Fold each of these.
Amino acid sequence: MPITYTSGEQVEVYRFGIPVTIGVPLLALFLQAFVPLRYPRFAVYIDLPLLVTIFFAMARRNPISGLLTGAVIGLAQDMLGHNPIGIYGIAKTVVGYGASSLGVKLDVENAGARLLVTLGFYFVHAAVYFTVARGMVNMTQTWSWSSGLLAGLANAFLGVILYFVLDKFKQRT
Amino acid sequence: MESVLGRYRNLIILVGVLFLQVLGLAMQVKKSGVDIEKTRLIRIWAVDAVTPFERMLVWVQTSSGNLWHNYFYLRGVRAENRQLKEQIEQMRLQQVRLADDAAQARRLQTLLAFKEQFISRTVAAQVIGSSGSDLSRIIYIDKGENSGIRRDMAVMTADGIVGKVLLVYPSVAQVLLINDQSSGVGALLEKTRLQGVLRGTSNGEVVLERVMSDEQVSVSEPVLTSGGDQIFPKGLPVGTVTKVANGRDLFLNIKIKPAADLSKLEEVLVLVEKQERETPTEDAVRMRASDILAQRLPSVPDKPATDAAGAASSHTGAGAPVAQPKTAVKQPAVTGAKPQGLAGAAKPVATVKPAVTGTNAAGVPKPTKTSAGASETPITLLPDAQKSSDTTGTEATRSQPDASQANPPSAQPKPVTPAPDNPQPPADENKPQ
């Protein structure tokens, strides 16, 4: 398996320009809101803001930066919906923190590692979201393992492709 | 202490950020539910950041599509086809309303003061975005406050209802779809007239709740809006029943397939104005009947004053003065339009002239309602000469009830009701007995 344990000194830490830092999450939010108009199942299976959160968190390898990125993207996603603001925010904050913490300890540069990490964090995100939505907001949520697994895999495969594209914007520190 | 803070700095910040978000979430969620209006200012940031791109992309898409379709590909036919489709959509809406009107009239004809709503004005809008989440089924449309759109307005297509306006921004509005789990629409089954509440589920289905399990509901039965939610006018198509099963608490679990395709919305109509009208009551019908009768009655042609005097002398030409009955003739004093029969009559001796604001469509003056709600009846006392000439069958017929009260029976003119097509009854018949 290509996941390898590395020390903090061995892994590369990247940074991104301001246009990329702002533009990519904004583009992800835009596509997430726009594509379902043409392909309704897109919103069911794909969460582009989640993929962007995971990518930035893993690339920067800074937990604080990761959790703040997740919080901002999640809150923006909440604002586009009509549910209370904070549900996606909390879920993506946890994912951002977890992905960046994992990025510090693991080499997640290869496709296989990225696939597994994205799949894992998809379920973390779903678990936190459903816990908050049911526990705090009293929303009626149903969980289907089959569709959940399908969505997780879809996000993971799309994530691998997306990370490959976004790698072009990385800048070494 | 510093080493502990430094060691757990990341974790402390994580807990802090999570705590702030949980706090914010708790402030939004109250016992009475979530009031989305309170977070409007915050949401507008995200909406303003995203919707310009969406609007631009939709515009580019539409423009490029239009360029091809309108100019290069079947230029005239496309435009005509679009126009015809719009016309069909409008006519289908009208047809639905008329069909429901007819059914409603049959059922409710005995009820008085029944009010119904009908669609007065709609604004067409283009769908430019969504929430991007299957847990928040909303769409964004490219019309907002500037186009007269307000909160809680109904949104529909020609096929059926879509949802209601949830939040309104200057140029964008957020629409909550009927398949969202926080949505609720008053609905009824078309054939059985059973009423229920239409709700969305977490997986995007639409169900009709609150229908008792002992009721008979058949699959493929159409579902219409009931108007009970004060948002959707009654009778708009909602969808059809696809599955009926026993649910919890003695209620049926009825699944509905929405009439409008909620997953492929491109253009919608926002109901910006609806009006209430009363179903014609018996009183109203009677009033109209009397108006029609008055309209059909023959009228006295205009006569100059000299002719009128001559006619008076001819009536009294036998030498023996005939006691003319003082007939009180109903004559509405009209502003702007005179009844034909009295247009050329001599000035009345005394006129009790209530204010009349106008005439109806047929030219018949409307009686003015008093504060008590009763109709004021204008009364005109005519001079003797005029009475002798104008106390025709027409006038006698019109004023018969009052005349019988005002005059002794012996002095009453013979009531004559000429045929509607005979405007001038024979002079002999007009002579008082």
Amino acid sequence: MATDPDPGDGAESVDSLDMGRRGEESGPTIEFYGGRGMSAFPLVFFIVWAVVQSGLLRIGDTTGLVAGMLVGLILGMLFVRGSWQGYANTVGGLVWAASVADIGASLFPAITFILAGLLATGIGTGYGTTVAFTTLFFPAGILLGASPVLMFGAILSGAVFGDNLAPVSDTTIVSAVTQQADIGGVVASRFKYAIVAAILAFAGYVVAGGAMPGLDISGQQQQIFLENSRPLGLVHLVSMFAVIGTAVAGRHIVEAISWGIIVAFVANVALGLASVAEMVVFRAPPDLAIAESLSWLPFVTLAESQDAVGVGGSLYSGAEGFFPLIVLVLLIVAGAQITINGGGFAAIQDWLLTSVATSVRRSELTMVLGTAIVNAMITINTAAEIAIAPYIARLGERFNINGYRRANILDANTAALGYIFPWSGGVLVGYAVIQDLPNRFEWFTQSMVVNPVEVVPFVFHGWLLVTVFIIAALTGFGREYTVDRESEEVARV
Amino acid sequence: MSLLEEFRYGWSFRSSRPEFERGQELSAFVTGYDGGDAIVRIGDTTLRIPDAPSGLLDRRVRLRVTDFDGTEHDGEAEYVETVGEGAF
């Protein structure tokens, strides 16, 4: 088969880099409405935030300052001229939609898989999707008569689908950046593997849903539950699709995420789904006079005691939640760098290249199984992905396997194996929520709690995604070489 | 490449031994050295660059195919320029 290299893409990439350099020489590379001074907006906003938080309201909370800088950067983007390289009640809306559509118990796990997959693809976090769906969709499915273990498996499968495909997913970003590929191209090129596995997984949940009986729970409890589900939550799906669309269209990932936050914020406030204070709030000392006079503002409240003083809200907890992961990632990167500089990386790589990965098929199979094994052993899948990424890059480059293909092998097996085994982070966050359900619902008994060991065979999409990649490595399905096309400029985060 | 083309790209089974034509220009990683020759392995196809400078291992180079044997899936190429480096 003759290969037709596409020098056009490569030339485009070089051009865009040159334009960046020319821009540095001739003037500002970003133009703002209101002139050059507006480029200081994010920093000025941050200073004002810091003065209000620390000076006026006397709240000494560093994470609150992180939230302030985050908001400053997002708002600053709105003043950029030209083209802008530019979520939580949703589940309640989905339960309402499912009940309106009158989905029966046997189809409920299959529909749960699709909806969880859509949500995870939109918000980019499989863990968040697992928590949201096990909180509300899992008990809803059990009330409708679906099998508990199948429901949990379907939720985890949806999380795998989203973690794998979402442009704003941490595993997607790590896979693209470490393999020198752009995020939009990576998402588009992995669609073929994800959809093949997802169609088979959907069929699996339809068949298993019919074969596996659920539990019999009184109709009155079902009625109470469904009456508490609201259709308004569905508006957040619009913001999800906006995030997916902008990222796949090649816009910078930071811009796409910023748009998601803005749309969610506006929709929450406009439709009354969440108050401003639920998203960001300054809890000032109760005896501070200026705080009392500012307490009319929707984001300022007086703390009940000195211990409760601080900054809060979803924007704050969102930023705070990432700190342990950031520290962990930095330490793993340090460890990987020491291994590279100390020669350990070269030793393992040489052994793999001379003894295991001796042909392109064996090399791809090594990449698939190596990523799968490391992810099956390490609880946090992003950390496992970062640790294995240098090996995937080198094994692939030695056979001139394209960066898109390498990123797809790396991410699919990372996402899949992070939600299957009882010690996997994704399974544990879902299990933690399910364990608490007997405290939240009278009808939910301890016997309905799914043991993490039981769910292992029912994460259909996870198993099928790994299988698709083993078959793809053996048959060459979707294989691309570096000579076929070059990645567009990498959106480095 | 349009968005639709990006989604449709790669729905096929790709050979482990890609073939090239004389005169074709490629951008690929140098994957090894054999004697004084640089080796560019693309899948299980091998291209040899006799005149390549040293120190190109794991660097991405532009090369021009000068000879290719479709039966053995190997050939020769000439070095044009270095265009990039590996990821790690």
